[in-house]
Design a protein that fits this description.
mainly alpha
Amino acid sequence: MCSKQGGKAKPLKQAKVEKKEYDETDKVNIQKKKDEEKALKELRAKAAQKGSFGGSGLKKSGKK
């Protein structure tokens, strides 16, 4: 049972994804989740533009 594998190993085939049917409540929840993610992304972008909050953070004294 000694077999040599030459070249690349072939990737495993993925199972076909079936289309899910959503009712109205599922659609509302999915849309709400997308809106929240979009709002968070915008807030992160806004926070990144402003820079750090407290300046340089903790300052150490020069004493040893």
